Amino acid sequence: MTVPINWPSYVDAMAALQHLPLDATRRAEVIQQMAQIETLARRFVDFPLEAEVEPAPVFRP
Amino acid sequence: MTSLAPALLPATAQECVAWIKSGEASALEITEAALARTAAGDDKLNSFTAVTAERARSEARAVDAARARGEVLPPLAGVPYAVKNLFDIKGLTTLSGGKIRLGDTPATADAALVRRLNAAGAVLTGGLNMDAYAYGFTTENTHFGVTRNPRDITRVAGGSSGGSAAAVAAGFVPFTLASDTNGSIRVPSSFCGVFGLKPTFGRLTRAGTFPFVPSLDHLGPLARSAYDLAMIYDVLQGPDAEDPACAGRAVEPTLPALSLGMEGLRVAVLGGYFRRWAGDDACAAVDQTAIALGAGEMVCLPESERARAAAFVITAAEAGAFYLDELRDHAEDFEPLSRDRLIAGALLPSAWYLKAQRFRSWYRQAARKLFERFDLLIAPATPCTATPIGAERMLLNGVELPVRPNLGLLTQPISFIGLPVVVAPLWRAGGLPGLPVGVQLIAPPWREDICLRAAWALEQSGIASSPVNGVFK
């Protein structure tokens, strides 16, 4: 997470993978959003968690 | 507004029930008053997106007929209400605030909670405006229009359930239903000065409502008193196999114990993050509440900043993935204020999403430790009073922030772990004239009774109240 991310390349690759067409204006806005979300994600993605800390799914077969 | 007749409303649900029971007013008279108030006043607010007048009259007549036959009336007989437009209403298209839903087939049945209210005798008067997809905190809906705040119509009502809060604050109906994923009941309750209950995650069935973020979506009522909230909530409870997240708990009535107030409850104020991101008005409201409820300590719920960030990522990822197909096909029809966040959400790395979900378990454990020592935690509901319509930036304790994504700063960590909360509205003497700000009364999981007792106690002490005032009086 400490290496600067090339968000334009990431957005282009992921949008292509998801078959999501983005015009130039929208592409720029999504790149900006990705950078903002990354700032937030930085706050917890490196937080150490013990292996037994699992998500709490609610799916009940 | 002075021309309204009959002047039965504004009234609380409790008053309506009493009038109908005693024969002082019929359900149809009260319903006509609600419809008349809405017709006369909603052009100023834009809280309703649909009015179901004929259905309401039909339901009211059924109540009056039951009374005439001498039947025992159900608990909410003849009380008008309305629902956020993500609830299915039979015969109407469920909009979930989105222009993209306009072509959908109308609902063939009511949402489960609407059915429960109908069985309890309540009278549905319509559907209410909201942020598109429930993704927002201001109800500035580009397609359906902004919902204005009845306390000051130059300001937002809060969101995403802005219509639900505004309609109650203006006295159009005694109560409404809404959803809360990150603060969508609590932020508008704070801004519009009404009482709002976000129950424990999994308590109330979501069957028949349009989803936003299934991991975090809650439903609950808004009203003008703690008594009304308890009376309505007791009718809404109960298991439902149709919602996989519904925990299936039996009904645990809260109304009988409401008047216990604060008896035996250990109370603390949440400091740290919840103080850092609260402005002067919000801090003053919390301090006033702390004195009234006997809070002896300020405590820290650790890592709340991370919790808020994780809630943000889960929201973007689940909502983005949900709307991906429609974003591919017609992104241009999406709400401009949230479209790019939805697209970005659909592109997020799965590892971030899953770490956020695991962190949710960690943070839940931290809260459990606090609840070993305390029964009730107090925090501000919003950082500030209602912001002006169209505001882009706000200054909060010396930090400039974008308004729209940050009004839920203080609610997001709490809904992240599904704790029950009642927002009680306070009227700050030193704040902007006439503007309320809410406090969150937060209890351990499944203890909605504690939140409601605390709200009732605040109301009895004269500190929290939800009058209908100004031009809507």
Detailed description of the structure:
- The complex is a heterodimer of chains A (61) and B (473).
- Chain A is an all-alpha fold and 61 residues long.
- Helix content of chain A is 54%, strand content 0%.
- The mean pLDDT of chain A is 91.
- Chain A is built from 2 helices and no strands.
- Chain B has helices at residues 13-22, 27-45, 53-68, 112-119, 162-169, 186-192, 226-236, 273-276, 280-293, 304-322, 324-330, 339-346, 350-373, 403-406, 412-416, 448-460; strands spanning 48-51, 80-84, 123-128, 140-141, 145-146, 148-149, 152-156, 175-180, 195-198, 218-223, 267-270, 297-299, 376-380, 393-396, 399-402, 421-427, 436-442.
- In chain B, 61% of the residues are buried.
- An 11-stranded mixed sheet of chain B has the order 1-3-2-8-10-9-16-17-13-11-12, sandwiched between helices. Chain B has a two-stranded antiparallel sheet with strand order 4-5. A two-stranded antiparallel ribbon of chain B has the order 6-7.
- The N and C termini of chain B lie close together (8 Å).
- Chain B contains 16 helices and 17 strands.
- Chain B is globular and about 60 Å long.
- Chain B has one domain: Amidase signature (AS) enzymes.
- Chain B is of the alpha+beta class.
- In chain B, a hairpin with a 2-residue loop joins strand 14 (393-396) and strand 15.
